[in-house]
Amino acid sequence: MKKLIDYTKILRSKNAGPLFITFDLIFNNNEDMLYIAERLTKAHIAKAYNVPASKIDIIVYSVVNSIKITFPRKNISGSLADNDIYGCQQHVPLANIEL
């Protein structure tokens, strides 16, 4: 079984404002993007990040072979409890999902 990172050209995380985190999955080709789009579920992401599936958005942009995933941050960016102000270190659990 391969990990999600094995299918992507770029897999990154970043803030989507102070309250949300977003992930960009960019693929080399449409075939890989469609393969992942059919298999990656909100349940996979909810389990990896301990967030309710109902709070997760998955948006497929097939024209540019990419998928965007967004959900609320556990801690507001820049708050005392925040350990990643830019949200750029949050992609590892997603990258390691096996599909």
Description:
It is a single chain. This protein is α+β, with helices and mostly antiparallel strands and 99 residues long. The chain has one domain (4-95): Threonyl-tRNA Synthetase, Chain A, domain 2, CATH 3.30.980. Helix content is 22%, strand content 28%. It contains three helices and four strands. The protein has helices at 30-39, 42-49, 92-95, and strands at 8-15, 20-27, 57-61, 66-72. It has a four-stranded antiparallel β-sheet with strand order 1-2-4-3. A hairpin with a 4-residue loop joins strand 1 and strand 2 (20-27). The longest helix is centred in the middle third of the chain and has 10 residues, at 30-39. The protein is globular and about 40 Å long. The N and C termini lie close together (6 Å).
